[in-house]
Amino acid sequence: MNLVKKTFIIFLLAFTVQMLLLTGMVALGYTQSERTWKDIRMERAHDAAVAVLTSTDAEVMLPREIAMTVYNAQGILAASNRGTGRMRITQETDLQSVRIDGQVIGYYTTGTLSFRSDAANQEFIDTLLRMFLLGILASLAISLAAAVYFSRIVSRPAVSISQVLRRLAGGSLDEPVPRNGSPEIIAIADSALALRDRLIRERTLRSQWAQDIAHDLRTPVASLKAQLEGMADGVLSLDAGRLTRAVAECDRMHRLIDDLEQLIKLESPEMRIQPDTLDCASLAESLLERFQEAAEAKHISLSVSTETTVLRGDEPLVFRALSNIISNALRHTPPSGVVRLAFQQKDSVYRISVTNWGDVIPPEEQQLVFDRLYRGEFARRTSGSGLGLTIALRIAELHGGTITLSSSAHSGTCFSLELPV
């Protein structure tokens, strides 16, 4: 059921409920008015009976609009405005007594008091019913017109956005998204715009990613294939150096495939972390042990400072993220340089920073270094899959955190893994 029909039905139901309430209130008002009218008539009849029974004036007249008969205390007819009436009381079911100071001085009876029996009252009721019915019809017409108008106002931008979303789903990402309508519709339009921009960016990254993967795999595969063919044809000698280089190319492909597999796993919707309390000193010792040999090979000094003793996180994933960051820092730190690892806790954030004084990352590249397979101007001169920082950022996001980057010649390049306490 579309929005127009739903709005129409809702308006119709609301109108029906209002009309039922209004009808009930009119009926209640009519009943109350009729009761009041009868009470006033009965009061006038009682006053007229008192006047007849207590007055010595024979000219006292009974009200014409009320058919009534008055008897004295002995049951003898005292007055009547509906013919001669009975001379004595015989049997009256609606006989009313007249009392003064607690003493019965007579009786009276009235005909059936009907609000509708009065011609003026009947005309008033008929006019009121006609106006009520006309009012209901006019209100129904206005409500239906308002329902249709309102539903069209609401549905038109919603339909436009739904059409844009369908075209986005079909791959047409250049469609403009209309931003008009109610604030809620505009919020949906903004979300659609954000989705479109995200899809465009993902499509660009996916295309670039596919090209980079093909390039990064094609180069070692081509080199390895050429060497193997040369050795098979006898053009190249089968020696340890060539075999070592072939193994290095295989290792490069293995690292790239391993990182791709890890990133796909981390970006899976089913991925769940298993946080635990981690000892910072033990984590730092494990990281130093892993990278000590690589640091010594470049005469790089690895230093650690721990201002907090524990942090909360998934140990294998945190270790992997820090390993990727430190590995990246070692690659870009010149020989005899320094890489500093620091554990801190500030307010509600654990901050683990890795700082090196190598090549400065230009400001225009700082927002791109976490993209898949992105390798900046300086990174192209070093080995690596181009996925290490992407994996580290994804791990941080799974913990509800992030990674920040600052880079300058004075303070060095600092990657900070921030995890919530």
Can you put this structure into words, describing what you see?
The protein has 421 residues and is of the alpha+beta class. The chain folds into three domains: 1-172, no CATH class; 183-266, Helix Hairpins, CATH 1.10.287; 276-420, Histidine kinase-like ATPase, C-terminal domain (Heat Shock Protein 90). It contains eight helices and eleven strands. It has a five-stranded mixed beta sheet with strand order 6-8-9-11-10, covered by helices on one side. A four-stranded antiparallel beta sheet has the order 2-1-4-3, covered by helices on one side. Strand 10 (402-408) and strand 11 form a beta hairpin. Helix 6 runs antiparallel to helix 8 (388-398). The longest helix is centred in the first third of the chain and has 52 residues, at 3-54. The protein is rod-shaped, with a radius of gyration of 48 Å. The protein starts with a helix and ends with a strand.
Short description:
The protein has helices spanning 3-54, 119-169, 183-233, 240-266, 280-297, 315-332, 363-366, 388-398; strands at residues 68-72, 77-80, 96-100, 103-110, 276-279, 301-306, 310-313, 338-346, 349-356, 402-408, 412-420.
Number of helices: 8
Give the helix level as a range of percent.
Answer: 55-70%
Strand order of the largest sheet: 6-8-9-11-10
Largest sheet: 5 strands, mixed
End-to-end C-alpha gap: 48 Å
Cα-atom radius of gyration: 48 Å
Features of the shown structure:
3 domains, 4-stranded antiparallel β-sheet, Heat Shock Protein 90, 421 residues, Helix Hairpins, single chain, alpha+beta, 8 helices, rod-shaped, 5-stranded mixed β-sheet
